[in-house]
Amino acid sequence: MQVAIPLFPRFTALDAVGPYEVLQRVPDAEVIFVGHRRGEVRSDNGMLGILCDARFDEVSEPDVLVVPGGIGTRMLLDDAELLDWVRNAHTHTRFTASVCTGSLLLAAAGLLDGLTASTHWSAVDLLEHLGARYVQQRVVEHLPQRIITSAGVSSGIDMALRLVELLADAETARAIQLLIEYDPQPPFDSGALTKAGEDVRRRAAQLRH
């Protein structure tokens, strides 16, 4: 089973690495990072580089597609090569998924027209402009359409564990959750807009730039 994760300049690292850490543990799974060209791609702050092992034209029929987000998605909303690849890959996938603002690319490719979807809270207006209907959930499923979207950054791990359940079974998903010791107990309870006060929202907006 081949899992393709596309990378692009200024992607958010955990959007890609979180699902990778989960899905690479599925028996018989091969996770491949793919991009416009082979070689290193730097994350949104430029501090981390990950290697693309294949070009888009070399990975045409993945079983699973997981599109990460990041500020770099905004520069790709009219990228014909990437969007055509996403559309064509989706015709072959068992599931097509996104993390954070990766849903913008699914929407730009026409895969979310009229569907509910999740994304990072900062990109809600843009997601809806692209034809999706935002809902404030960590993971949003449309199994008949084989599409799953997840909210910002950390929710990609939740989404990947759900994918394991769909691809294998719940016991395997639980076992992988144990292996990565994913047992969130954050020291603060401000991980959603509904939980964050105005001061926290203002500071978050400052840190985004």
UniProtKB/TrEMBL annotation:
Domain of life from the UniProt record: Bacteria
InterPro entries linked to this entry: Class_I_gatase-like, DJ-1/PfpI, INH-QAR
One of the GO biological process terms: regulation of DNA-templated transcription
Every DJ-1/PfpI domain range: 2-165
Pfam families, per the entry: DJ-1_PfpI
Coiled coil: none
Protein name: Thiamine biosynthesis protein ThiJ
Organism listed in the record: Mycolicibacter nonchromogenicus (Mycobacterium nonchromogenicum)
Source lineage: Bacteria, Bacillati, Actinomycetota, Actinomycetes, Mycobacteriales
